[in-house]
Amino acid sequence: DKGNHRHFMEKEIHEQPEVISHTLAHYLDFTQGTSKPLDLPFNFADIDRLAVSACGTAYLAGLVGKYWFERHARLPVDIDVASEFRYREMPISRKSAAFFVSQSGETADTLASLRYCRKEGVPIGAIVNVRESTMARESDVVMPTLAGPEIGVASTKAFTCQLSVLAALTIRAASQRGTITAEEEKALVRSLSETPRYAAQVLKLDKQIEKVSRELASYKHVLYLGRDTNFPLAMEGALKLKEISYIHAEGYAAGELKHGPIALIDENMPVIVIAPHDRIFEKTVSNMQEVAARGGKIILITDQKGAAQATVKTLETIVLPDVPEFIAPIIYALPIQMLAYFTAVFMGTDVDQPRNLAKSVTVE
Ligand code: F6R
Questions:
Q1: 58 Cβ closer than 6 Å to some ligand 1 atom
Q2: ipTM of this model?
Q3: pLDDT grade, residue 201 (50/70/90)?
Q4: Most buried by CB count within 10 Å: which residue of 1, 145, 300, 321?
């Protein structure tokens, strides 16, 4: 049932404040300001590497997780798309754990990667949305996303719930490894507790995002740029746009612009820049200047401070609430989903059932 929404995808985008809240409450104790003890078959302090493997959008959630685990828990993360991982015969040390991220819990390549790690004898955790899935059954610990059934083929609420689980696990890992103080743990938990409220605020930008999408629908190619955790988000934005609107899109690390994609920039190639005002905001501003100097049209997704300090002409600036850096990837996921959604609606495509795609890819 779509309720009063035109598509399941729209409904699922709007469910995010609620399902993120449910998911976080499963992992975090908001009154104590701590991560809840999980039934993990290992202690994060006893491992020196984490292998993460997944496909598509779930892979991009894992990639954000890598930035988080490495930054806050000082835990090195190897992340691969599962179709590569399963065949690349990676040596896995005994002091590793392996996490698999999947909405369906049935994706063939991810499951094969899980079985590879099982043979290697490392503890296995599955971050899945379907509790009774094959991956859930075959793992040592199930870390559920509580997104509820996701019907739209393009993943939206499952993605932000995967991010929520990975963020909570990062706090757990950092706490067990002693890389954050109790005060810092409280601050991270507090910032996560605010995500549902910020997400609800972002949903109210739908009129502006719909207007930009009308414009976007007239182009053949779109480039997405971001740095740090916004780099995986740039790839997620491009993935979402191409799969439902069929417009060619690519996501790049903003610093890679000069190493190739800048050759594509002209007035026919809009560039979507995902850049909250953070430690490296100035670097992204210079990338935008490079784009503007070549006639590229910029759609900037940022916050108040970023909008004030971006000394560059944009086609449109979408201003999100100022949010703590830790939770920015969860909040910034929403406008890129909304952009893809409205653009697809303007293109007249089958938003919930895009051509050639299946919700669950159970064959290789
Ligand atoms: C993109 C999308 C796909 C899936 C991928 C993995 O919107 O939905 O890229 O993320 O097929 O599926 P799961 O998460 O079920 O393993």
A1: yes
A2: 0.98
A3: very high
A4: 145
